[in-house]
Amino acid sequence: MSPARITPRRAGLVTVIAAAGVLAAAGAASAHVTVHPESYAKGATDGVLTFRVPNEEDTASTTKVQVFLPTDHPVLGVLVTPEAGWTAKVTTVRLATPIKTDDGTITDAVSEITWSGGRIRKGEYEDFDVAFGQLPDDTGQLAFKTLQTYSDGKVVRWIETPQAGAGQDEPENPAPELKLTAAAPAAADAGAAVASPSAPAGDRTAGDSAVSHSTARGLGIGGLVVGALGLAAGAFALVRARTARS
Question: Which of 35, 58, 168, 193 could form a disulfide with 163 if both were Cys (CB 3.0 to 4.6 A apart)?
């Protein structure tokens, strides 16, 4: 039997099916509970975290979302934004080690936020906003383990964290993670690298020498201009005096 001939129409159909499979896989991978933005500076203050919760079930709706905040690296000053149709319950715990801040000592922190009463249907998602007063500065990332409950009783546990090391597979149900990056250096720190005018010549950089030469050249040109103006003023006064005498 001769091999089946692949016509252009059949080849196009195969391409469409393959592309649909890729898109479906990408959609499934992106349908996790996530936190936005993906990163903040360590110790950042007065910001907002948005937990995006998509509905992954075809025959059930999401009816409850529980987000657990880490207490070993607590988020301070947590406030919940009201969401239409949802009721938020905030749970706090006493910290094992109180945290000293400019506003005083913090002894309690939020450990859990539960949203219920609403409904996220098939093909929909909901954003839950949480404001914070200050993020921790002693860790590089925060994991917010989350439980998603459906109307049929199913509970999806978004609690897995990636394993350290290269080549590790992505967890099937990853917890939303926030990366904490090093704070940007202040402008004053950037300017500290420039040598002061009183510094020894050996401590100045090539850039400083170029600036000094440019400054000297500018002063020299300025002196020539001032001298020329002085000569012109003197000549004008001499001509005026001779005219007055005549």
Answer: 168
Between 208 and 175, the higher pLDDT residue: 175
Q: What is the pLDDT of residues 50-65, one digit of tens each?
A: 999 999 999 999 999 9
Identify the residue with better confidence: 8 or 172.
172
The HSE-up count of residue 163 (CA atoms within 13 Å, CB side) is: 8
Query: Which pLDDT does position 188 carry in this prediction?
Result: 47
Average pLDDT for 179-189? 73
Q: How far apart are CA 161 and CA 176, in angstroms?
A: 9
Strand 62-68 versus strand 146-150 pairing type: antiparallel
Sequential DSSP letters for 120-158:
E-TT-EEEEEEEEEE--SS-SEEE--EEEEETTS-EEEE
Instruction: Provide the sign of the torsion angle of the four alpha carbons 194, 197, 202, 208, taken in this order.
Output: positive
Which residues contact residue 171 at a Cβ distance below 8 angstroms, ignoring those fewer than 6 apart? 160, 161, 162
* Helix (H), strand (E) counts: the chain: 3, 12
- Of 212, 168, 180, the residue nearest 194 (C-alpha): 212
Asked if 95 contacts 106 with a C-beta cutoff of 8 angstroms, the reply is yes
Evaluate the CA torsion angle 73, 79, 85, 86 in order and state its sign.
positive
Beta strands in the chain (DSSP E): 34-36, 39-41, 45-54, 62-68, 79-80, 87-101, 104-120, 125-134, 141-143, 146-150, 155-158, 177-181
